[in-house]
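Human:
Focus on the backbone:
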Amino acid sequence: MPKQWKYWWLALGFFTRIPMPTIADFQESDLNHAARYFPLVGVLVGGVAVLVWWLSALVLPHTVALLLSMAATLYLTGAFHEDGLADSADGLGGGLDRERMLSIMQDSRLGSYGAVALIGVLLLKFESLSAIAPAHLCAVLVAGHALSRLMAVAVMATARYVRFAGKAKPLATSLSRADMAWAGLFGGVPWLAAAVYFSLASDMLLIWIMATLLPVILVWLWWRRLILSNLQGYTGDTLGACQQLTEVAFYIGVLIWERLA
């Protein structure tokens, strides 16, 4: 199997429920190269979200179609990132020191911090998507899923992995410049395509950049600082949380853009 196809299948199999062919010569280090395709997986997940929403909206109310779209992405990914968000909230909220936080995050049980974080983010996502103009949703959903996964990859590229045992293994732990460049391409092009799709004038393009990127970057900086100060690095759970938080931040940014445009 060609290496790049191998890395793509690894990324797809790692982050979705889609059955993948068996890779006989798999090595955990392969995930370092597969990380370049994580945002591309987001494009696929966003595409599924668009398809389910569009088909459902033909016969159902807009809000019901959105709920079905969200449910489809949860099923497709196995709630992988949402689980990371809940575990991260439980660990960071309930642990008094680093070791206790990591221990709590390995516990599969859902605590109060995790429940509040999970419900809050899902509600924010639903309410934000409900408020975005339906004409913008297709481009926004694909861009949001891709860009948020790029932000998770950016954490991997700028911090160290702090757990080498437990349920988060295997995980990509080292990215090359080429891997990061490809991830940037796969995560950034949908966002740029959305700007083109909306046919923004030059002055509106600046508003789009500021409104949609600034919330994402601010949330990313806050989250990265939080995990570095408490955990001295990232875990698989905190990457999932980063994806969820920056996805919601992007949708909120789109709402800001719609009101300023």
